[in-house]
Amino acid sequence: MEKLQEKIMADGKVLSDSVLKVDSFLNHQIDPVLMQAIGEEFASRFSGEGITKILTLESSGIAPAMMTGLVLGVPAVFARKRKSLTLVDRLYTASVHSFTKNETNDISVSRDFIDETDVVLVIDDFLANGQAALGLIDIVEQAGAALGGVGIVIEKGFQEGGAMLRNRGVRVESLAIISSLANGKVEFLEEEKAL
Ligand code: G4P
C-alpha cells in the first residue's frame, strides 16, 4: 500500500536492525485519515470472505480493526491483555509470548462476542514472530468460528511470523512488508514476493 509505505519512509524511525518506531501515526498518536485508508484496503482485500467480525489485540490493533469494521459493516472485538473489572467469566483465553519483551500475557475475549456462526478477520498493527496472531487464531478456534484471514499493517518480513502463518495455510495480507531495517534504512519487499 503506497500511502503507508510513504508514511513509514517520512515518519518512521529505525531504532535498531529489528525495531521500527511508528508512534507518530500508529502506536501512540494515530493518523485517522491513514487509518481510514487502511480500513478500506483491508475491507477490499477480504471482501470475498464473508467476514462477520474483526478480532484484534489491544491497544494498537484497535484503530485499524475499527476502521476495517466500519467499512465492512461488522463489529470489531479487541482481546484484552489485562483482566477487566466486568470481564470475569465466560472467557476464551490464550497465552501470547512476546520475544521482543520477553514476557507472556494471557489474552481474553468474552464468549458473548464470537461464536461458531462467525467468520473472523484477525487484524494487528505489527507482525514480527507471529505470537499475537497465533493467540488470536487460538481464540477463533476455541469459539468454533471460521478464520477469514489475517490482516497486518506492517509485517517485518525478516522475522518468522509471516512464513509461519502462511505455512499453516492462513491467508495473510500485509499492507507493508519490511525486508530490512539494517543500517538505519527501511527496505520494503514487494508483496507478491512474500507469498
Ligand atoms: P509477535 O506478536 O509478532 O510475536 O511480536 P512481538 O512479541 O515481537 O511484539 C510484541 C509487541 O511489540 C507488540 O505490540 C508488537 O506489535 C510490537 N512490535 C513488534 N515489533 C515492532 C516494531 O518493529 N515496531 C513497533 N513499533 N512495534 C513492534 P504490543 O506490546 O501488543 O503493543 P501495543 O499493541 O499495546 O502497542
TrEMBL record:
<protein>
    <recommendedName>
        <fullName>Xanthine phosphoribosyltransferase</fullName>
        <ecNumber>2.4.2.22</ecNumber>
    </recommendedName>
</protein>
<feature type="binding site">
    <location>
        <begin position="128"/>
        <end position="132"/>
    </location>
    <ligand>
        <name>5-phospho-alpha-D-ribose 1-diphosphate</name>
    </ligand>
</feature>
<keyword id="KW-0963">Cytoplasm</keyword>
<comment type="subunit">
    <text>Homodimer.</text>
</comment>
<dbReference type="InterPro" id="IPR010079">
    <property type="entry name" value="Xanthine_PRibTrfase"/>
</dbReference>
<dbReference type="InterPro" id="IPR029057">
    <property type="entry name" value="PRTase-like"/>
</dbReference>
<keyword id="KW-0660">Purine salvage</keyword>
<feature type="binding site">
    <location>
        <position position="27"/>
    </location>
    <ligand>
        <name>xanthine</name>
    </ligand>
</feature>
<feature type="binding site">
    <location>
        <position position="20"/>
    </location>
    <ligand>
        <name>xanthine</name>
    </ligand>
</feature>
<comment type="similarity">
    <text>Belongs to the purine/pyrimidine phosphoribosyltransferase family. Xpt subfamily.</text>
</comment>
<dbReference type="InterPro" id="IPR000836">
    <property type="entry name" value="PRTase_dom"/>
</dbReference>
<comment type="function">
    <text>Converts the preformed base xanthine, a product of nucleic acid breakdown, to xanthosine 5'-monophosphate (XMP), so it can be reused for RNA or DNA synthesis.</text>
</comment>
<feature type="binding site">
    <location>
        <position position="156"/>
    </location>
    <ligand>
        <name>xanthine</name>
    </ligand>
</feature>
<dbReference type="InterPro" id="IPR050118">
    <property type="entry name" value="Pur/Pyrimidine_PRTase"/>
</dbReference>
<dbReference type="GO" id="GO:0000310">
    <property type="term" value="F:xanthine phosphoribosyltransferase activity"/>
</dbReference>
<comment type="pathway">
    <text>Purine metabolism; XMP biosynthesis via salvage pathway; XMP from xanthine: step 1/1.</text>
</comment>
<keyword id="KW-0328">Glycosyltransferase</keyword>
<keyword id="KW-0808">Transferase</keyword>
